[in-house]
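Milestone 3.1: sequence recovery, worked example.
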C-alpha cells in the first residue's frame, strides 16, 4: 500500500515536533492540513521565543538558499518582535467573549 502525500507530511511534522521538544519547546502547536505559512508553532518560554515552522517532506533544499527565501516569503514576513497576549474564549451569560489573562 502506498503512503499518501498527506501521511508523509504528517510523519515529517511529527518528527519536527519531537525535535522542537528536544530543543526545549514547552508547547508545539500543529496546524492540521494547513494552508497557512506555518505548519508548526513552537513556544520556548525560557528563551522567550516563538518559532513558526513550515515543514516540507520529501524534498531537498536547493543549494541556493535565496530560492527558498522567495518561495517562503510569506513566512519570512512574519518574522519580528510581537507582543504576546493570552485569552480564553468562552461563554459568559450565554454569549461567547474573550477573557484577557
Amino acid at each position: 500500500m502506498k503512503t499518501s502525500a498527506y501521511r508523509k507530511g504528517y510523519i515529517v511534522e511529527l518528527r519536527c515536533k519531537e525535535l522542537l521538544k528536544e530543543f526545549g519547546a514547552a508547547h508545539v502547536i500543529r496546524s492540521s492540513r494547513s494552508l497557512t505559512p506555518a505548519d508548526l508553532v513552537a513556544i520556548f518560554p525560557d528563551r522567550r521565543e516563538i518559532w513558526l515552522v513550515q515543514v516540507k517532506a520529501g524534498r531537498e533544499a536547493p543549494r541556493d538558499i535565496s530560492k527558498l527565501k522567495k518561495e517562503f516569503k510569506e513566512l519570512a514576513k512574519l518574522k519580528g518582535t510581537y507582543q504576546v497576549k493570552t485569552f480564553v474564549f468562552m461563554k459568559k451569560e450565554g454569549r461567547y467573549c474573550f477573557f484577557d489573562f
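The chain has a mean pLDDT of 90. The radius of gyration is 17 Å.
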